[in-house]
Design goal:
The structure holds two protein chains of two kinds.
Chain A lengths: L4 E2 L2 E4 L5 E6 L9 E5 L6 E4 L13 E6 L2 E6 L8 E8 L6 E3 L3 E5 L1
Parallel strand pairs in A: 2-10
Antiparallel strand pairs in A: 1-3, 3-7, 4-5, 4-8, 6-7, 8-9, 8-10
Chain B lengths: L2 E5 L2 E3 L5 E8 L8 E6 L5 E7 L6 E3 L7 E6 L4 E6 L8 E8 L9 E4 L3 E5 L2
Parallel strand pairs in B: 2-11
Antiparallel strand pairs in B: 1-3, 3-8, 4-5, 4-9, 5-6, 7-8, 9-10, 9-11
Classes of the chains: A mainly beta, B mainly beta.
């Protein structure tokens, strides 16, 4: 299997832009998806398939990818965006999936 | 609306077995691939297992391979996870999750259940 690496914690001032990154060899071949999880709640899909947003996800959330790195960008972060964010993708075999360790986003 | 409701969690001794269920509604169950994902207390998400829409393909994380079995009953719209030889490190909230698109094994978990807690302890 392969690993996906995320920074454990990131902070952003209210209304500013923040990018959360996810690195792994498998990202050169497979797209990442991103999940937001608030305390005591199930995760929510926010970005999938090279930048697609599910219905109901604000357009301040966007995704991109380059080489072995996938990125989640929040443009104009809001207080309600404070949460844990996880990336996910297939591993190098293509038959298994793996999550990144998660990034705790604090909105100041 | 899409609903996934897990059940079957509880406290179990190490080495024993437990069977989780995930009852689905609000979509064509037999057209979607499904996954189990778990989260140990205070820890991150861990993918556990995958089953294709017709149960022809099943994959497992190395940490559970040979001990856990994923299955589904499309006639009853229910997903299962049979967990054998349980260990303390299997303690977690177990979520079932549905793929975003029909007949697609992309692994984009568009819908999640609320989770069921499994505690392995003597």
């Amino acid at each position: 299997s392969s690993e996906l690496t995320q920074d454990p914690a990131v902070s952003v001032a209210l209304g500013q832009t923040v990018t959360i990154t996810c690195r792994g060899d498998s990202l050169r071949r497979y797209s990442a998806s991103w999940y937001q999880q608030k305390p005591g709640q199930a995760p929510v899909l926010v970005i999938y398939a090279k930048g697609n947003r599910p219905s109901g996800i604000p357009d301040r959330f966007s995704g991109s990818s380059s080489g072995n790195t996938a990125s989640l960008t929040i443009t104009g972060a809001q207080a309600e965006d404070e949460a844990d964010y996880y990336c996910n993708s297939r591993d190098n075999s293509g038959n298994l999936w793996v999550f990144g360790g998660g990034t705790k986003l604090t909105v100041l | 609306q899409v609903q996934l409701v897990e059940s079957g969690g509880g406290v179990v001794q190490p080495g024993r077995s437990l069977r989780l269920s995930c009852a689905a509604s609000g979509f064509t169950f037999s057209s979607y691939t499904l996954h189990w994902v778990r989260q140990a207390p205070g820890k991150g998400l861990e993918w556990v297992a995958f089953i294709s829409y017709d149960a022809s393909d099943k994959y497992y994380a190395d940490s559970v391979k040979g001990r856990f079995t994923i299955s589904r009953d499309n006639s009853k719209r229910t997903l299962f996870l049979q967990m054998n030889s349980l260990r303390a490190e299997d303690t977690a909230v177990y979520y079932c999750a549905r793929d975003a698109r029909p007949l697609d094994s992309s692994g984009y978990y568009a819908y999640w259940g609320q989770g069921t807690l499994v505690t392995v302890s003597s």
